[in-house]
Specification:
637 residues, alpha+beta, 4-stranded antiparallel sheet, 24 helices
């Protein structure tokens, strides 16, 4: 049909057909799925970025995150809008290409070919293998021209970044100063004036509550809330009755044999980490080593490894799951760890040292390299094909149902036709989760842009939604009668905090006129608390928490010991601090870390310059974004 259309594109009849199509697209297609496929999601200096490009980038990002986080992917990505992230990457790519072109940077076809041919993933016996190249691209749902465009863009970006890197250099003095700042340790003494100790006798009157409510009216603002109905077009449900043919299964198996169903040697191990902080002294390293040896001895003597991990491990990601690292192949762990594990025998326990510290490692299993047979792979193949088909059906269904909904069909009828459910939510604010929704960001963004009664299609990484805004409760301050308890609690805390602060000012004045902080604290019956040395750049004071105002003030002190010459406040409490010690890392530590730290510091400075360069390109560019398609806030830059 397309060939026939092209063959008569200049005929009078085709002009008429074209005019009719244009009419319907203009007046009826603005909210349909059809136009969403051809209308640009964004423009960058007049050049279009289409929704399909963003969808593909989202898929690639999700695949990457799955490789990194595995089963923890959903938790790791909570609150992350992958479509915004993907679009930002495409915008940056477009701007970099434009700037490189302006500067005369070109990647020749020969350079591109050499780059791809030198990739070990595409080589067999050290030589580029075209069949392997095609097979890997197919397994990643990429066409050759798409992959080649991406590689060319990466090479262009690298060339431009190299130009910027050349302008960034660092002196040895600058690096040593940065090293000292990062690894400097401080020690503190302090007294705390807890506001809870000052609430006695505070009993607000009705008038005081009224005055406080008026004065701090805005602090009691309730955020806007919305209520929605939605249908979730989950690919697995959409394709529940779909059964791939034997030909489909065999073809998938052959296409993905090397990339998916051929497995390298894998180890399944557990570990207990005794961490060693960057810049740790030799004494601290020796203490960690001694602790690890003791744990090793207990493990080898038959102690329960899972209990040892829960008690001793400094790795929070698996401490309470027996130290389980899951299965991994070569190249996935730091090299010293990997080298040791793959030399061990199942059941063996050993001590391994890495840049993270000391690991007590137990090898549970070692699986030799193998290839899944077709029968072994068949369930996964069916699931994969079903998922692909389900995603296609979901995209088509939400577009069809959006058109029907805009014509008056209710969500209940649409869901019933598909064998799906309509979910009605409770009211929620922008920063609140939606019960039962793993990644609510696209739904939340769409809901807060919609009008009451409006229906929208919401893209969401292959499993789209059809959403209707049921109700909206605008942001408001409730009447005092409704929140009197909340206002009373806030007034009591505020009054107690003021008393605590006033008391702390009196004590600080006494300290300034006395030679000894501890004596003043004892005289005022205030317990003195001591914080042992900690890394100042962490801003985390042991026993208190994040307190950057204190660590910043400590960094400015000229002599020691010295009182920090102001009362510090945090969460209603007041504090008086004395800086008792400040220690730079020694020359021995610097000599050991100098090479690696210099590389990291220079890379950080260069990366910062690159990010500033990208932000400047965005600032200077003409960028528009169709937020309805993006499913995210704000539409222009």
């Amino acid at each position: 049909m397309l060939d026939r259309f092209r063959g008569h594109q200049n005929s009078w009849a085709m002009w008429v057909v074209g005019g009719i199509l244009a009419f319907f697209m203009t007046f009826f297609g603005l909210t349909t799925g059809f136009l969403n496929r051809v209308h640009p999601l964004a423009t960058v200096n007049g050049k279009q970025i289409l929704g399909d490009q963003v969808d593909k980038q989202v898929t690639q990002l999700r695949n990457l995150y799955q490789q990194i986080y595995g089963a923890n992917e959903a938790e790791a990505l909570k609150g992350t809008n992958l479509r915004e992230q993907a679009l930002d990457m495409l915008i940056e790519r477009q701007l970099v290409e434009e700037e490189a072109s302006r500067l005369g940077i070109r990647i020749s076809n020969l350079a591109l070919q050499q780059k791809i041919a030198s990739d070990p993933n595409f080589q067999r016996d050290g030589q580029f293998d075209f069949d392997a190249y095609q097979e890997i691209l197919r397994s990643n749902d990429l066409l050759p021209h798409e992959y080649e465009d991406r590689v060319r863009a990466e090479m262009t970006s690298d060339a431009l970044k190299s130009m910027i890197d050349l302008g960034i250099d660092v002196s040895s003095d600058e690096v040593r100063h940065a090293y000292n700042l990062r690894n400097e340790k401080i020690a503190l003494d302090y007294v705390e004036f807890d506001w809870r100790n000052f609430i006695a006798g505070i009993s607000p009157t009705a008038q005081q509550l009224q005055d406080f409510y008026k004065k701090f009216h805005d602090e009691f603002t309730e955020p806007a809330r919305v209520k929605i109905e939605f249908i979730h077009y989950v690919p697995a449900m959409m394709a529940a009755k779909f059964t791939p043919s034997d030909w489909d299964i065999n073809t998938y198996y052959k296409d993905h044999l090397k990339a998916v169903f051929t497995h390298p040697e894998e180890a399944h191990a557990r570990h207990i980490l005794v961490s060693v902080a960057a810049g740790a002294t030799q004494a601290e390293k020796d203490a960690a080593h001694k602790k690890a040896l003791d744990i090793l001895k207990q493990a080898k003597s038959g102690a329960d490894f899972a209990k040892l991990a829960a008690r001793y491990s400094d790795d929070p990601s698996n401490r309470f799951s027996g130290g389980d690292l899951g299965s991994f192949s070569r190249g996935q762990m730091v090299k010293p760890f990997e080298d040791a594990v793959f030399k061990m025998k199942p059941g063996e326990i050993a001590l391994v040292e890495t840049s993270f510290g000391f690991h007590v490692v137990k090898l549970d299993a070692l699986t030799p390299p193998h290839v899944d047979t077709l029968n072994e792979a068949k369930p996964r193949i069916i699931e994969a094909i079903r998922s692909e088909e389900g995603a296609r059906l979901a995209r088509n269904a939400v577009n069809e149902d959006l058109s029907a909904a805009l014509s008056g069909t209710g969500l209940d009828d649409l869901a019933k036709k598909r064998g799906l459910d309509v979910v009605e939510t409770d009211e929620f604010a922008r920063n609140e989760p939606i019960k039962g929704v793993v990644d609510p960001a696209p739904l939340i963004d769409a809901a807060f842009k919609a009008e009451v009664g409006q229906v929208r299609g919401v893209p969401a990484s292959g499993a789209p939604y059809l959403m209707k805004l049921v109700a909206r409760d605008p942001s408001h301050v409730p009447p005092l009668a409704q929140i009197s308890d909340r206002v009373r609690e806030a007034l009591i805390k505020s009054t107690a905090a003021e008393r605590a602060h006033a008391d702390s000012l009196k004590v600080l004045a006494e300290v300034k006129g006395a030679p000894n902080f501890a004596a003043v604290a004892t005289e005022n019956k205030l317990p003195m608390k001591t914080v042992p040395p900690f890394v100042r750049s962490s801003n985390d004071i042991p026993g208190i928490g994040e307190f950057p105002e204190v660590t910043a003030a400590a960094g400015m002190a000229a002599t020691l010991p010295v009182m920090i010459d102001q009362v510090m406040e945090r969460s209603g409490n007041s504090y008086i601090f004395e800086l008792t010690a400040r220690t730079d890392p020694g020359d021995q530590d610097w000599k050991k870390d100098e090479e690696q730290f210099t590389e990291e510091y220079l890379a950080s400075r260069r990366q910062g310059a690159w990010q500033r360069f990208l932000e400047q390109l965005k600032s200077d560019a003409r960028i528009t974004i169709d937020s309805d398609q993006l499913g995210a806030a704000s539409s222009s830059m």
